[in-house]
């Protein structure tokens, strides 16, 4: 896991970042995947599956119904690989190969981005009394390449799907991923902050945010701006909806670890504007996994250049997943790419990160330029950052019941969707 140490690095962060283009082999090679021998898998698929399952701690008993069912899905996922004439090849396989597309979609996505009939995003602007700030980087000259990963500001790669629990809360992970970077840039401390607080507490009208049923990072960032956010260790991730254990409002009790100061929209369908923002700090993007869910699911590195998925209009809606853009650059072969941080664990992609084509025009590859935004942090907030008072804090109770039924929460969501275009 890439949990970087604490370090005061504001001066460094203010310096213009300018990196040489990445050498493709070096940048895209590393992984925590399972290396599958294609020859072995062809000769003994059950044995190869059992090894893969052991590698990822699945614990399926050999010969059980579950083993057989998962083996079937796994072989289906790998069908392209097993059908190819690659006698001796070793191919990387991540830990999602035994999940079906629908199962994966329910557990791993969850961005809710309201759109009108033309696919124009209807967020941005006002959420209750909250307002998105006007874009602040229009005069920035973005450098040719930026990568925030070596700068010791990015929090740990996390996994929104733990212990077999389905939670469509990518929006909370994208929010927290961005918040962790902004807090580290302002305070020099890389903290791991609480997604579960957003899942439990950032709910109902006028927000979109519906815990494990989906949400929007704009609402999440605005929630943190109003309420602060706790440490992951104080308010740990449960991968399910639970009761909010935080009173709202900045002055309420709790071990509030960090604060933000608002949300900014990035001009849409404008990758230059996205470069400007990402050159200043990591930013959030909503993407479309849509019909390309299998390619997302089994991604193990390299530029995600799936035919159809990355051309503007190929898959730009609905925007159903959210990630953090932590860099961009150009390969030695001249292909532009974005670097995105995902919330699907470190075994997925390149240690949890992915590379997506850049400068494809329109709404960008996978729609990533359709509705990007960023968190605003004006500096260290004496009231909000690291205001940790252990005496007033009680640990969440993981066994607590839901406050609202799923149907109630979904109907709140559609009420919100119906009013948004008028905002
Ligand atoms: C993209 O945004 C920048 C400012 O951030 C602006 O100067 C430029 O004109 C925009 N491009 C388009 C095509 O709108
Ligand atoms: C997952 O399971 C492990 C082992 O039982 C447990 O320690 C951990 O707290 C669980 N995590 C969640 C989020 O439920
Ligand atoms: C992943 O999915 C893509 C698109 O469906 C396919 O071409 C590729 O072979 C798959 N890779 C693996 C390892 O299953």
Automatic annotation (TrEMBL):
SUPFAM superfamilies: Cysteine proteinases
Top-rank taxon: Eukaryota
Domain (Peptidase C1A papain C-terminal): residue spans on this chain: 142-376
PROSITE patterns given in the database record: THIOL_PROTEASE_ASN (PS00640), THIOL_PROTEASE_HIS (PS00639)
Annotated signal peptide: 1-25
SMART domains documented for this protein: Pept_C1
Biological process (GO), any one: proteolysis
Keyword Amino-acid biosynthesis found: no
Keyword field contains Signal: yes
GO molecular function, one term: cysteine-type peptidase activity
Keyword terms, alphabetized: Disulfide bond, Signal
Gene3D superfamilies: Cysteine proteinases
Family assignment from sequence similarity: Belongs to the peptidase C1 family.
Entry protein name: Peptidase C1A papain C-terminal domain-containing protein
């Amino acid at each position: 896991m890439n949990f970087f140490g604490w370090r005061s690095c504001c001066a460094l962060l203010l310096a213009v970042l300018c990196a040489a283009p990445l050498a493709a082999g070096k940048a895209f090679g590393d992984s925590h995947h399972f290396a599958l021998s294609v020859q072995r898998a062809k000769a003994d698929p059950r044995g190869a599956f059992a090894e893969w399952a052991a590698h990822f701690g699945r614990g399926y008993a050999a010969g059980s119904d579950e083993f057989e069912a998962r083996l079937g899905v796994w072989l289906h996922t790998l069908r392209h690989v097993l059908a190819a004439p690659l006698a001796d090849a070793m191919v990387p396989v991540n830990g999602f190969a035994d999940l079906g597309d629908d199962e994966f979609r329910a557990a791993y996505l969850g961005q809710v981005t309201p759109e009108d009939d033309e696919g124009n995003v209807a967020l941005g602007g006002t959420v209750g009394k909250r307002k998105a700030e006007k874009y602040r980087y229009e005069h920035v000259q973005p450098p040719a390449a930026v990568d925030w990963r070596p700068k010791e500001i990015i929090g740990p790669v996390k996994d929104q799907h733990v212990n077999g629990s389905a939670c469509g809360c990518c929006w909370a992970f994208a929010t927290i991923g961005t918040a962790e970077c902004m807090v580290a840039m302002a305070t020099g401390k890389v903290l791991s902050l609480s997604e579960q607080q957003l899942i439990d507490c950032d709910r109902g009208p006028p927000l979109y945010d519906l815990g494990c049923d989906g949400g929007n990072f704009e609402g999440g960032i605005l929630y943190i701006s109003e309420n602060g956010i706790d440490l992951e260790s104080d308010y740990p991730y449960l991968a399910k909806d639970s009761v909010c254990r935080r009173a709202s409002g900045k002055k309420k009790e709790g071990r509030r670890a960090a604060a933000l100061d608002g949300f900014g929209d990035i001009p849409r369908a404008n990758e230059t504007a996205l470069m400007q923002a990402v050159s200043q700090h990591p930013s959030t993007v909503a993407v479309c996994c849509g019909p390309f869910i299998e390619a997302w699911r089994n991604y193990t590195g390299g530029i995600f250049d799936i035919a159809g998925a990355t051309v503007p209009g190929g898959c730009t809606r609905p925007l159903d997943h959210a990630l953090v853009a932590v860099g961009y650059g150009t390969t030695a072969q001249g292909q532009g790419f974005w670097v995105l941080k995902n919330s699907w664990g470190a075994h997925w992609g390149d240690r949890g990160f992915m590379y997506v084509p850049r400068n494809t025009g329109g709404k960008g590859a996978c729609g990533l330029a359709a509705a990007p935004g960023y968190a605003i942090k004006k500096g260290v907030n004496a009231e909000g950052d690291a205001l940790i008072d252990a005496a007033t804090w009680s640990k969440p109770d993981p066994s607590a019941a839901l406050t609202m039924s799923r149907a109630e929460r979904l109907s709140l969501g559609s009420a919100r969707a119906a009013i948004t275009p008028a905002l």
